[in-house]
Amino acid sequence: MDDSAVSEEATGTRYPLGDLLFGGVTWLSAAGVLLVLGAIVAMLWLGAQPAFAKFGFWGFVSSAEWNPVTERFGGLSPMLGTLVSSLIAILFGLPVSFGIALFITEMAPPWLKAPVGTAIELLAAIPSIIYGMWGLFVFAPFFADHIQPVLTDTLGELPGIGALFQGPPLGISIFNAGIILAIMIIPFITSVMRDVFETVPQELRESAFGIGCTTWEVVWHVILPMTRVGVVGGIMLGLGRALGETMAVTFVIGNAHELHLSLFEPSNSIASTIANEFTEADGEVYTASLIALGLLLFLITFVILALAKLMLLRMSRQEGNAR
Amino acid sequence: MDRYRRRKAVNVFNLGVSAFTTAIALFFLFWLLWTLFRQGLAHLDLRLFTQDMPGPGSEGGGLRNAIVGSLLLTALGILIGAPIGVLTGTYLAEFGRHARLSQAVRFINDILLSAPSIVIGVFVYEIMVVPMGNFSGWSGGVALAIIVVPVVVRTTEDMMRLVPDTLREAAAALGAPRWRVVTDVVLRASLNGIMTGILLALARIAGETAPLLFTALNNQFFTLDMDQPMGNLPVTIFNFAMGPYDNWHDLAWAGSLLITLTVLILNITTRIFLRTKR
């Protein structure tokens, strides 16, 4: 929509001062938002300098050593922990989110749509610390007693990948953290998928049904191909959330600084390491190493979220062209 | 005929799986809420609001100082964050709708919306806690404000965009300057929506833990002094849940229930707000 009717020429010349002041204040505030982002990156970069100076950027990123006594720090173990737990979250969260979005948009009778949709969205409203506490006191023991032994006895026996599923039955592990994360990101992915599914014109669905497609075929051959970009954007959004999630992971991941092949061993993530150690860190290099981890986390999530945003933008532009 | 039967079977199976996944997600929601109510209700009593945190190993006690601290911190976060958010949203929707700056701000804002909150905690630690020399309520409030801003910006812009341009033109035709058009017409028409956004932001920061860990820290004692480390519910829940004492765990559950109820009520209120508006 063009806003020429209230353009500067129409009003600005007669009432310059008020407009200048109010417009200026809103401009300042908008520029401030940009500035905050810049300041975050700059401050993290500055704060991380002692660590990068001592270990070098690549040295820091590629070392798995984390020893406060000898002051040797490397970010490899928390970075891997963050990536692996988020990937597990996507692995479980994606099919479930797709199922829910499919159920809500294509299957549910109208009276069921709203309550189910709202319930799923409430899942996103629950603070992450609650997930963490529930994960630690309720889900971890349940997982250790009932799910993990089954997985160890079946998948753990397989050659090659079997080692991934061998470990102590603690329930405190990177795998468990991934499952809790999956529950947390389901509402985000679902809501994006729902939105993009609903942009598919009704006529397209009907014509597919008209030539005899089943509901599943309509979804798989018509809706998904049309909304592919948006769906991927939604997955990236969920991934971005999972990467940066702190409290839920901190409770259940175990915070151990060793690299393990097994997914059932206690591990750590960038966010959980910072949450656990930041206030206790003494010494410049220790604090700087934690800040360096924060910088890495921020950069990784920034890239993922930016990609998600770009894809969703492309999706909405496509939709604009189609109409 | 076989082919048809196979297609039908695939369809029924896949739709069945889809309904099943929905059931799984709902099951987890109810499992979580059920645990929370069962554990939390048992310890939700008056002394929670009248007594301060118990020390390690001692019996009894409540969460009074943490509740008061949380109220102060969230209030500060909203007081700083909401005006900035509304002004920025106003710029995006009114003054700089097509400006290059707006496009950048929209993009960055959406990223800040999902940015890891722990990093915001580290950031505020560096810009406030280090220069001031100690953890403080002020820095906790600022950290929360940084989380409030993107939420409010987003809803403010969306709600202002819902106001039809004809209204703006009508006001301009009456000779109103731009700023009066914005404050008297657009802002008024979208006020409910903007309030909704602020409530949503409130719900978001009510349970935020990570940015408070090294800004407001925590405080076992009652204080209203924002220059001091300040007790707050989320960090208290974190410390108590990770601690070894049953009494602490009970209080953590009660605190969790309190936060969840607050957040759910805020969310449902905003939904009703929005529904009556449409």
Please provide a written account of the structure.
- The complex is a heterodimer of chains A (323) and B (278).
- Chain A has 323 residues and is mainly alpha-helical.
- Chain A has two domains: 16-47; 49-322, MetI-like (MetI-like fold), CATH 1.10.3720.
- In chain A, 75% of the residues lie in helices and 1% in strands.
- Chain A has a two-stranded antiparallel ribbon.
- In chain A, β1 (66-67) and β2 form a beta hairpin.
- In chain A, α6 packs across α7 and α6 packs parallel to α10.
- The longest helix of chain A is centred in the first third of the chain and has 40 residues, at 16-55.
- Chain A is globular.
- Chain A starts with 7 loop residues before the first helix and ends with a helix.
- Residues 1-12 of chain A have low confidence and may be disordered.
- Chain B is an all-alpha fold.
- Chain B folds into two domains: 2-43; 47-277, Orthogonal Bundle (MetI-like fold), CATH 1.10.3720.10.
- Helices cover 76% and strands 0% of the residues of chain B.
- Chain B has helices at residues 2-41, 47-50, 64-95, 100-114, 117-132, 137-162, 165-173, 178-189, 191-206, 233-242, 246-277.
- In chain B, α7 packs across α8.
- Chain B is globular and about 70 Å long.
- Classes of the chains: A mainly alpha (323), B mainly alpha (278).
- At the A-B interface, α1, α2, α4, α5 and α6 of A face α1, α3, α4, α5 and α6 of B.
Q: How would the blueprint of this fold be written?
A:
The complex is a heterodimer of chains A (323) and B (278).
Chain A lengths: L7 H4 L4 H40 L1 H6 L3 E2 L4 E2 L2 H32 L2 H16 L2 H27 L19 H25 L3 H9 L4 H30 L2 H7 L16 H8 L6 H39 L1
Helix pairs in contact in A: 2-12, 4-7, 4-9, 4-11, 5-7, 6-7, 6-10, 7-9, 7-10, 8-9, 9-12, 10-11, 11-12
Chain B lengths: L1 H40 L5 H4 L13 H32 L4 H15 L2 H16 L4 H26 L2 H9 L4 H12 L1 H16 L26 H10 L3 H32 L1
Helix pairs in contact in B: 1-11, 3-6, 3-9, 4-6, 5-6, 6-9, 7-8, 9-11, 10-11
